[in-house]
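During the reporting period the student researcher (J.K.) took over the structure-prediction task from the postdoctoral fellow and processed the backlog of single-chain submissions. One of the processed entries is reproduced below for the supervisory committee.
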Amino acid sequence: MQQRQCVVLFGDRVWCEGSTAQLLSNFNRDRMLCLSDEPIADIPTIKIKQAKTRLGQEFDAVVFDGISGLFPDNFGQSVGTLSAGGAFILWLSIDGERFYSQRFRGILKQFETQHSSFHCIHEGENLPELSVPVRAKYDIDYRTADQAQAITAILKVAQGHRRRPLVLSADRGRGKSAALGMAAAELLLAGQQRIIVTAPSLAAAEPVFRHAALLLKGAKQSTGLIELGEAELCFMAPDVLLEKGEQSGFLLVDEAAVIPSPMLAEMLSRFSRIVFATTLHGYEGTGRGFAVRFHTLLNEQAAGWRHYEMVEPVRWRRDDVLEAFSFKALLLDAEPVADSLIANAGFEQCVIERLEKQTLLENETQLRQLFGLMVQAHYRTRPSDLQLLLDSDDISFYVVRYQGQIVASVWLVDEGSLTSELSEAVYHGKRRLKGHLLPQSLLAHTGLLSAGPLSYQRVLRIAVHPVMQRQGLATALLGKVLALAESRQVDVVGASFSADIDVMSFWQSNGFNVVRLGVQRDEVSGQHSVIFLKACSTAGIQLMASAKKRFEQQWPDLLAMQFDQLNFKTVLAISGQMTRQCSVLSELDRQDVVRFSQGYATYESCQVAIRTFVGLVLQHPCFLQLPEPHQQLLVMRVLQLKPVAEIVMILDLKGKSDVITVLRGILSELLIQLASEDNIVTASE
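J.K. obtained the following structure tokens:
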């Protein structure tokens, strides 16, 4: 295969456009793609942010307009669409003084010096001659050795022992989706009746269906569906798949790292024959972090799982220079320090220090260690985070070092100190700020006008090398952050992370309080986001008290109105940090709870009183001593108002009468244990 070519044009837009037309004059216009937020003559053009919609497609020429700014995520995505022998044309402005731009341009110069297929041309210089790619006739029987082995492994999952899932991983361009499609076609031809494909979107799964269709000439085809007689290959979105309760057939999960992990876990529990395919060094930046977490889940739930990694490119040469450039420039292959170098490290041998951006710009090893640590620790570390790290003036970071190696780090961003006018505008919903997540949320969602003028420091990322975890490094980093915040007269230190039990436990153990739970679930983690705060000043303490009180007052109603699907353990974790209230249960409410528990009244007639009572005892030791299914029943039925049919299925009960009987018994037990506590019933009519 031919080497992919790259030409970087430094100049104004008019010159870049004219030069591009000259460079690509002999190329097939139908196989060109231009990414620009301004229309480009004679070349099919899409908006830069739409680059991800072209992943899986192939072009002979790709033009990327970076004059107004280089968007790393979209740049990486567009590189992945260029076929072997093709030409990538990158437009850049002459100026580039930011750290990220300096680094990017330095790597460009390095590749130009070392590779004849790389050209950096400034306005007025002669243009190189580009070779037009020679397209080999595609033969569906052609497969790389990797593809052949991957297909064999997929077939084995479908035809071999049950409960032996396969994780198929690869970088872009290795034919991973094609292998899924070809394997699916072979299975249908061999008699498999139903194969389900799920992915973050139908567009993401399109290559699977395209390659399956090439082998299934006589099949009936429509969008997301191939029918071969009575057999079918069909697409189902992850949420639809789970909502319908599907659990039969063979399941292919493409781009698994982009699907929320709770969904993947549920798929794993439902399907006995399943393949998870994911991109390792993807432009979404999720692959490595996904692998670390998901492999742990597989070890717990499916010990017989297997892994196959595809390494041989299909779309370009093994030694492709453009891929090497994108990996180096975007740090797609960044890894934390090798385990062997810190195997004997201990907490007492480590030091905490601030890391300056200029140091990172001058020391590629440290930059790769810092960024690699985040790639491994967080699902959503993307190439754009590298640009954020280097170029944002309000971001700083501290690291923990062992013998010079970075073993933990925290990224911080300064927020707040808003003017009264700006605070009012956000409070009244007239403005939405870029950044300033903490004060903006407190103003717009919690309704605290006093939040705007205060100063905040938000923890963007925090990570510890796996070898060094459970030694207190993250807690030590937070201690450093809090001490520095107090010395700088910062009012509040906070963070926003997923409502994961372990994550919440870490923040709560370090003195942070939950003051808000996001309504929408994160599209990757599948969990709600939680805002944690810790006050560092008198003004911060007052704000913290107001935010915490407001959240606690609204919590019982929020459980029914917005968080009825929240995992009950998460409900308990959040409830457990709340201040125990003095009794708000009236004597008549107590009598209603007693009447229901003894079978003298219906649940519906006493529901309000029962809800008040359960909300009251939720943080009491007697509640926490209940068997887990009983805790779960009270949370789901009384607080979250889940339908009885759903509760019966989850808790394996016999029906509504069984639910009522169990509820009566639980409430009777709680009443007995609380009978001696005067503070539970003090309010009078």
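The committee noted the following: The CA atoms of residues 627 and 667 lie 13 Å apart.
J.K. will present the remaining backlog at the next meeting.
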